Amino acid sequence: MLKPFSAVIFDMDGVIVDSEPRHEKAFLEIFDELGFGQTHGIHFPDYIGRSDKAVWVDFIAEHKPAYSYEDLTAMKQNRFIEILRKEQPIFDGLPELVGKVTAKYPAAVASGSLHPVIDEVLVLKNLRSYFSAVVSSQDVANAKPAPDVFLRAAELLEKKPDECVVIEDSLAGVEAGLSAGMQVIAITNSFAKEKLGRAHHIVHNYEEIERLLGVA
C-alpha cells in the first residue's frame, strides 16, 4: 500500500507515450544521414530515461561531427515530432488513468524531453488540460537520475516531496524519484520487473496503478 499522498507526478516517455522506440528511430535516421549509420556507437538502453543531451554529448565526444550540438538537437527533435504526429503512440489505458487521477488529485508531468516535444505529446488525446504543471529537463540544472525535475514539479504543485507519488518506467527515473524523497510506482513498459526493483511498487498495467492510487 502507498503511504498517504496528495499529488501525482507522471514521467512522459515510456509512461504517457510509447516513445522510447520512436526516439531510437529518430536518432538512427539522423545518424544514418550524418554518415554514422553503422558506426554511431550508441547503446540506446543505456540512455532510457535520460535526456537527448546525454546521447549527443557522448556522440559528439566520440565522432566530432560537423554540426553543432544545437543543430543536432534540432534535427533529432524535428524528426521525432514527425514520427510522433504520424503514429500518435499514447499507451492504451493512459488517458483513462489520467482522467481518474486528476479528478481526485493535482498532477504534473516531469520529463527529460524538451518542451516542444512535451507539447506535441500532450496535444494528443487533449492530455495537457489535465495537468496543473509541466516540467522539462530544460527547466532545471540537472536531468534524471538527479531529482531536479520532480522537485520542481512538486514546487509548482505546491506540495512537499513526500506528499507526491511518481509514476516512472526507467531506472534513471526511479532513482530520480527516490532521490526526491517521493514514493515511486514503476511500470514495466521499458524494463523488466527485475530491473526496477528499487521502486516502491512495480506494476504491469495502468489498471494496477489505478488500484494503487485508489482511483479505480
SSE layout and pairing:
Elements: E1 7-10, H1 20-34, H2 52-63, H3 69-87, H4 94-102, E2 107-111, H5 115-123, E3 133-136, H6 148-157, E4 164-168, H7 171-179, E5 183-187, E6 201-203, H8 206-213
Helix pairs in contact: 1-3, 3-5, 4-8
Commentary on this structure:
The protein has about 220 residues and is α/β, with parallel strands linked by helices. It folds into 2 domains: about 5-20 and about 90-215, Rossmann fold; about 20-85. Helix content is about 40%, strand content about 10%. The protein contains 8 helices and 6 strands; from the N terminus they run βααααβαβαβαββα. The chain has helices spanning about 20-35, 50-65, 70-85, 95-100, 115-125, 150-155, 170-180, 205-215; strands spanning about 5-10, 105-110, 135, 165-170, 185, 200-205. Strands 3-2-1-4-5-6 form a 6-stranded parallel sheet, with helices on both faces. α3 (about 70-85) runs parallel beside α5 (about 115-125). It is globular. It starts with 6 loop residues before the first strand and ends with a helix.
Distance between the termini: 14 Å
Order of helices and strands: EHHHHEHEHEHEEH
CATH topology of the largest domain: Rossmann fold
Strand order of the largest sheet: 3-2-1-4-5-6
User: What structural class do helix, strand and pairing data support?
Assistant: alpha/beta
Number of helices: 8
CATH-assigned homologous superfamily of the largest domain:
HAD superfamily/HAD-like
* Fraction of residues in β-strands: 5-15%
Largest sheet: 6 strands, parallel
Number of domains: 2
Rg: 17 Å
Please give the number of β-strands: 6
Shape: globular
CATH architecture of the largest domain: 3-Layer(aba) Sandwich
In the CATH hierarchy, what is the class of the largest domain?
Alpha Beta
